[in-house]
Amino acid sequence: MTSKTKVVTVRLTDEQYTFFNDWQKKLQAQTGIEVPMGAVIRRALEGFMHFASSQNRQESPDLREAQDRLQASKEYVTEYNQKMRSDKMTIDNAEYKKGFAEHYEEGRPVWDIGKPQAPFIEIADRIKGPILDVGCGSGSVAVFFAEKGNTVTGIDLVDKAIERARAKAAAKGLNVSFQVKDAFTLIESDWRFPSIIDSGLFHVFARDLERQRLYVEALAHVIEPGGTLYLLAAKDQPEGSIALSGYSHDELVDAFSEGWKFESIKEFMAEVTPEIAEKHPDVEWSTWFAVIKRRV
């Protein structure tokens, strides 16, 4: 189902502009994060924006009411501060967590093919433990490398994914450490790994430069000097494609420009679940596979 976005044009009086501009400055001072004016107004209007019933006409929201309500809310700055810090510093927020969790509630996610993507299998003997699998999902990649005798830790934001991963490892008699963990909190961890695998998490942040930066910093924090990141990320897609859009070659290289060195980067067609392949036989799931060393 295609979602539709309504665009509302808001006209501010000088007094209203001054009011919202002051709040914008206060929020930025509180959070240390650039807060767009639109975000301030949108929060103020939340819950009482009214649109005309006609599809071709929209009523302007009552900014005076919004202004009064915002001014009366003593908890607003604290609440907004906490929300902005959560959204910017971690993946653990309503939008991201709900989106991932829904895939597991509905059954098998489209990316869960029950085994690693082909490039991981091709160079499996090069990937030595201890291994950290970031965004491990239901554990297929982590279990594969554990079966080869490696010590593996897998983390994922979604509880149900980790439940499935633990069950998968237990069924094979493997001791794999699967943990429900926000990848962005790795920046605070004392873990260190010579090998890190990311099979399909990084491309989630393809249009979010701030999260890209924070995520790469988190990986740099837990990888050993000279360690290797094995990264699978979606390639940028032509407009109109249903495949997940990711990075151009240059965008991917730029994201790891500080303190990293690409050993290799290649394009390949990722495998998807049979259900998705049958439903969309003409879609090309173009993906990058990169081997990236952390400089000593």
From TrEMBL:
Domain Methyltransferase: 131-227
Keyword Membrane: no
CDD domains: AdoMet_MTases
Gene source species: Solidesulfovibrio carbinoliphilus subsp. oakridgensis
GO biological process terms on file: methylation
Transmembrane segments: none
One function term, GO molecular function aspect: methyltransferase activity
Protein name: Methyltransferase type 11
UniProt cross-references to Pfam families, sorted A to Z: Methyltransf_25
InterPro entries tied to this protein: Methyltransf_25, SAM-dependent_MTases_sf
Keywords in alphabetical order: Methyltransferase, S-adenosyl-L-methionine, Transferase
